[in-house]
Amino acid sequence: MSSVDIELIKKIAIGAAQQILKVYNSEDFAVETKEDSSPLTKADRLSNDYIVKELQENYADIPIVSEENEAVDYEVRKKYTRFWLVDPLDGTKEFVKKNGEFTVNIALIEQGSPILGVIHIPVSGKTYWAQLNEGAYCEGEDGVQKLCCEEFKMSDENLSVVCSRSNLNEETKEYIAKLNNPQTLAKGSSLKFMLLAEGEAHLYPRLSPVMEWDIAAADIILREAGGRTVCVSNNQDIVYNNGQDMRIPSFIAYAKKMINP
Ligand SMILES: Nc1ncnc2c1ncn2[C@@H]1O[C@H](COP(=O)(O)O)[C@@H](OP(=O)(O)O)[C@H]1O
Ligand SMILES: [Mg+2]
């Protein structure tokens, strides 16, 4: 099996962002609606084409599952020991609203867990990355920084809680309302996890569905920064590529949660 070069994956994410920004900065772009009612633009397609081509050229032996590729049948997919899991433009609704809250996400999944993740924010130019047991990092205007989550207890007052800007449901609102005077911040895309990884927020409860590609890169980056993402149903790590559809019904992402309540 070929080994993977994280520097190359970071370059691929940045190259994909250039494709996205060509569309973002153009006067006007068409917005189509997919079968699941979510939006699709030329930027999603250009970013996907770029990432898929680069990954195939450099890692011919590692299959790719991407939001914008044709779905891979579970009977085929369940035999994968390693695969790329890609969301070429996470936060398409935010892209359409032109608020900058969208990301490029590339993860490498091995035996059901992410072992590498790269997230790039096209508008700010910031890149986040992590590999299993090697820590999490980001690079922006201030150079490279090691990411480290803030410690907290669930009973703390004024916890900083991030939630979806465009997909916030009643169940999540009720969960947040039970906390002790929470300070809520709405953001689009996997950026929410990055706020936890940077020590800027404590909790990201998501009691509504996402797809595996929305969170795989963020999951490993947050974990390597000292946090954790768990399924609500069993309070365990998310197991990827574990069923017919790649839907995760709900999860809670934590910064560094202390055991005492
Ligand atoms: N009902 C649903 N089922 C599955 N995924 C959903 C969903 N509603 C929203 N999502 C996912 O939530 C992502 C947006 O996250 P957020 O709400 O945190 O900004 C979308 O990513 P895309 O923008 O890549 O389609 C989409 O995959
Ligand atoms: Mg997405």
Automatic annotation (TrEMBL):
Record key words, sorted: Cell inner membrane, Cell membrane, Hydrolase, Magnesium, Membrane, Metal-binding
CDD domains, per the entry: CysQ
EC number: 3.1.3.7
Residues that, per the record, bind substrate: 67, 89-92, 214
Gene3D superfamilies, sorted: 3.40.190.80, Fructose-1,6-Bisphosphatase, subunit A, domain 1
Membrane topology qualifier: Peripheral membrane protein
GO MF term set: 3'(2'),5'-bisphosphate nucleotidase activity; magnesium ion binding
Highest taxon of source: Bacteria
Binding site for Mg(2+) 2: 87, 90, 214
Entries under PROSITE patterns matching the protein: IMP_1, IMP_2
InterPro entries: CysQ, CysQ/Inositol_MonoPase, Inositol_monoP_metal-BS, Inositol_monophosphatase-like, Inositol_monophosphatase_CS
One GO CC term, this protein: plasma membrane
Residues the entry annotates as binding Mg(2+) 1: 67, 87, 89, 214
Catalytic activity: adenosine 3',5'-bisphosphate + H2O = AMP + phosphate
Protein's GO biological process: phosphatidylinositol phosphate biosynthetic process; sulfur compound metabolic process
Localization in the cell: Cell membrane
Cofactors (names): Mg(2+)
EC class name: hydrolase
Function summary: Converts adenosine-3',5'-bisphosphate (PAP) to AMP.
Alphabetized HAMAP family for the sequence: CysQ (MF_02095)
Record family assignment: Belongs to the inositol monophosphatase superfamily. CysQ family.
Protein name: 3'(2'),5'-bisphosphate nucleotidase CysQ
Lineage: Bacteria, Pseudomonadati, Planctomycetota, Candidatus Uabimicrobiia, Candidatus Uabimicrobiales
